Amino acid sequence: MTDVTRFQGLRVGAAICGSFCTFEKVFTQLEQLKDMGCTVTPIMSYNAAQTDTRFGAAQQHIERLKKLSGNIILDLTAAEPIGPKHMFDVLVVAPCTGNTLAKLALGITDTPVCLAVKSHLRNQRPVVIGVSTNDALSGASKNIGALRNYRNLYFVPLGQDDPSAKPFSMVADFTKLPETIAEALDGRQIQPMIF
């Protein structure tokens, strides 16, 4: 059980990538973090902010996220000052797609999410990654492994979401986000990481 008092006043950057099927689960957790006393500032990848899907219109997602803090980061110019201004105590990337995992592993910073991670890491503060990708056990596995070896990067526990129909797919258990954040703030990877 996570000590809720620990979250009072915690400044959380919430970077969202385009795994649209998990938006509802992630948004619910971000709203709970706010209810626990966190200041939550959303950051969206270009795809997350601009793509309408069967899971909702992009503008609807933006409006819902704006209710968390009144502010939302949608471009590189707004993401760059995250590190220099020490904007967050912890940065959460959830959902984190295979595309973003690859970019983070290679140091590519061409989206607001990737630049937010780079900028935040300069302060040696924790980044929590909630994976959601259909190729976690194939193409993205090497990037998960590479990122697991980096300092200040922590993973929300993840597991196969549909082993029969999608044998390479893994998704984080987003209900474990608060616990993962608490462990990351203490410099520990929550265990088990894979279920």
Summarize this structure briefly.
The chain has 195 residues and is of the alpha/beta class.
Q: Helices, strands, pairings?
A:
Layout: E1 11-16, H1 23-35, E2 39-44, H2 46-50, H3 58-69, H4 76-79, E3 90-96, H5 98-106, H6 112-121, E4 127-133, H7 141-148, E5 153-155, E6 158-160, E7 170-172, H8 177-185
Parallel strand pairs: 1-2, 1-3, 3-4, 4-5
Antiparallel strand pairs: 4-7, 6-7
Shape type: globular
Number of helices: 8
Could you name the CATH class?
Alpha Beta
The CATH superfamily appears as Flavin prenyltransferase-like
Characterise this structure:
The structure is a single chain. By secondary structure, this protein is α/β, with parallel strands linked by helices. It has a single domain, classed as Rossmann fold (3-Layer(aba) Sandwich), CATH 3.40.50. The chain contains 8 helices and 7 strands. Strands 1, 2, 3, 4, 5, 6 and 7 form a 7-stranded mixed sheet that branches. Strand 4, helix 7 and strand 5 form a beta-alpha-beta unit. Helix 1 packs parallel to helix 3 and helix 5 crosses helix 7. The chain starts with 10 loop residues before the first strand and ends in a 10-residue tail after the last helix. The mean pLDDT is 96.
